[in-house]
Design goal:
The complex is a heterodimer of chains A (62) and B (260). With 62 residues, chain A is an all-alpha fold. The mean pLDDT of chain A is 74. In chain B, 43% of the residues lie in helices and 26% in strands. The longest helix of chain B is centred in the middle third of the chain and has 35 residues. The mean pLDDT of chain B is 91. The chains are: A mainly alpha (62), B alpha+beta (260). At the A-B interface, helix 1 and helix 2 of A face strand 1, helix 2, helix 3, strand 4 and helix 8 of B.
């Protein structure tokens, strides 16, 4: 249905993954907790996607 | 298990789940070491991770490394994907780590709602559907439907053209909202539960997203949602709308918000 490049397809899949694995799901207080470390996973996910998008830009420019 | 290891927990499944489901899948720290830890009728999907990489400080550092994080996020999903559609899976959010099996068992025993959620979501999985609108296709269609009533050339024609463009913009916005609502309603009718999430920015979505939906379906009823997507693609395809279906996923969008 879409004619996106393989690189963009992979990016789209990563978006789906980040949207679920980092932003959703049952959150439990583990022995080692990311919240204690002051880590906001939604923010971490956003940073990952931006890093990935800028990698794509570089690939496109090449 | 040694003092330098901890257990990463991916998700929770019914106690009777066959551990063989995970025999061939690589864990988040590598190796075929995914197993189940049971308590109170439920089982946690776990694998050992080195504390050197997963203790607070090290983990916080790793989270800043996009390559490391992407690999681990994919691993988390890969392990759960081995079970989706075969047994009911409650997906945990990334990064639940315990210092041993006893600690995992204590957690399972304390969280009665895990067993309740497994019953509520019994035999169900999630599918994702996103709709993107190619506005140039839609504008072209709307323009030709209006006919060539705006001749080019004069200053007056330029002013008419500007007004025409504004009307087209408004029509595109109205179409996008209506199409998103109708698509979501059609997909919701083909599923057990539905959720429309906020749409993603064009930079990450790869276009103008008008719908970002998650749909809960029975393991054996995926086809019903797939045909609903095909039907929508046939109805709105000429208007520049394309649909992308992903999954099956564990029901990330349908588990209760846990207390933290």
């Amino acid at each position: 249905m879409t004619s996106a490049s393989p690189a963009l397809q992979q990016q789209v899949t990563l978006v789906e993954l980040v949207d679920r694995v980092l932003n959703k799901g049952v959150s439990l207080t583990g022995d080692i907790t990311l919240s204690v470390a002051g880590v906001d996973l939604v923010y971490v996910g956003l940073r990952l996607l931006l890093a990935s998008a800028s990698t794509l830009d570089r690939l496109d420019a090449e | 298990m040694t003092a330098t290891e901890a257990l990463y927990v991916y998700g929770v499944v019914p106690e009777a789940t066959h551990p063989g489901l995970f025999a061939d899948v690589e864990g988040i720290a590598g190796g075929r070491s995914v197993r189940l830890v049971e308590a109170k009728g439920v089982a946690a999907i776990v694998s050992p991770v080195p504390l050197g990489d997963f203790e607070e400080e090290a983990l916080e550092q790793h989270l800043r490394d996009p390559a490391w994080l992407e690999e681990k996020v994919r691993a988390h999903d890969r392990v759960l994907a081995a079970a989706v559609g075969r047994v009911t899976v409650l997906p945990l959010r990334f990064g639940s780590i315990y210092r041993g099996e006893d600690h995992v068992r204590t957690m399972l025993a304390e969280r009665d709602e895990l067993a309740d959620d497994l019953v509520r979501l019994d035999g169900l999985e999630e599918l994702g559907v996103k709709a993107l609108l190619d506005t140039s296709v839609l504008r072209g269609r709307l323009e030709s439907a209006r006919g060539a009533d705006v001749a080019a050339g004069s200053g007056r024609a330029y002013m008419l053209r500007k007004g025409f463009e504004r009307e087209l913009d408004a029509e595109v916005r109205t179409f996008a909202a209506t199409c998103a609502d109708e698509s979501h309603a059609r997909l919701a009718a083909a599923s057990v539960a539905a959720r429309a999430n906020p749409t993603q920015a064009p930079e990450v979505a790869g276009g103008d997203m008008i719908l970002n939906g998650a749909y809960l379906v029975r393991f054996d009823a995926e086809e019903k949602l797939r045909s609903a997507v095909a039907e929508l693609a046939a109805r709105y395809g000429d208007d520049g709308v394309s649909y992308e279906l992903t999954g099956p996923w564990p029901p990330y969008n349908f588990v209760e918000e846990g207390e933290t």
